[in-house]
Amino acid sequence: MKHEDANLVERCLKGDGKAFEELLVKYRSPVFSICMRMVRNHSDAEDLAQDVFIRTFNVLDRYNPAYPFSSWLYRITSNLCIDFIRRRKSGIVSIDEPVAGTDGEMSRQIPADTVNPDREMENREMMEMLDQAMAALPEHYRIIVILRHQEQLSYEEISDNLGIPLGTVKARIHRARNMIKEIFVQRGLVEDDGAAVEDSE
After folding, report:
1. How far apart are CA 2 and CA 5, in angstroms?
2. Would you write out the chain's pLDDT as a tens digit for each of its 201 residues?
């Protein structure tokens, strides 16, 4: 895949617009997904994803084909998301906050995957707590959790993607999980057993 992407980049640099379109189609979904989890607003995520590819195109000549294109792209994505969050100065968006629609504001809807009303309510409440806990994380912790658990990247891949030491990745994952656990303990969702949350490869 690394060679395939490198070939596409090489074609782009030679003026092949179709090659960049292929990269766009290939990575549009994961880039938008990361943006959405980071900024928690569909419109902002769409704008950011577009900015990511505009920025990528403008600096494509700086890409080093010795490394995976995805790592380079995700680094640009994370940097733009973090910059956006810091400018916005607001890291938490309530799941109950209404969203804009064509007919005015409407409540956020969570699709149900069960017919059991009690279980559905429990799942909704747990997802809301997890949603809020993720939003409460500092942005440099949040992006690592997203890459680890949503994109299923290894520690080494996250280190490469973000350009930070492997030890820093492990430390931030460990701290982020314990921050989420602390929030759950405060909300009475889990008991405080005094044990730190550990990860497994």
Report:
1. 5
2. 678 999 999 999 999 989 999 999 999 999 999 999 899 899 999 999 999 999 999 999 999 998 889 989 999 999 999 999 988 864 444 444 454 444 555 444 444 444 456 666 666 666 677 777 888 889 999 999 888 887 888 899 899 888 899 999 999 999 998 988 888 888 776 677 665 555 555
- Determine whether domain 1-90 maps to CATH 1.10.1740.10: yes
Look up tokens 């799941």; give the residue.
95
Strand residues in the chain grouped as ranges (E): 99-101, 104-106
What's the token pair of residue 163?
């350009």
Give residue limits of the domains in the chain. 1-90
pTM, entire model: 0.69
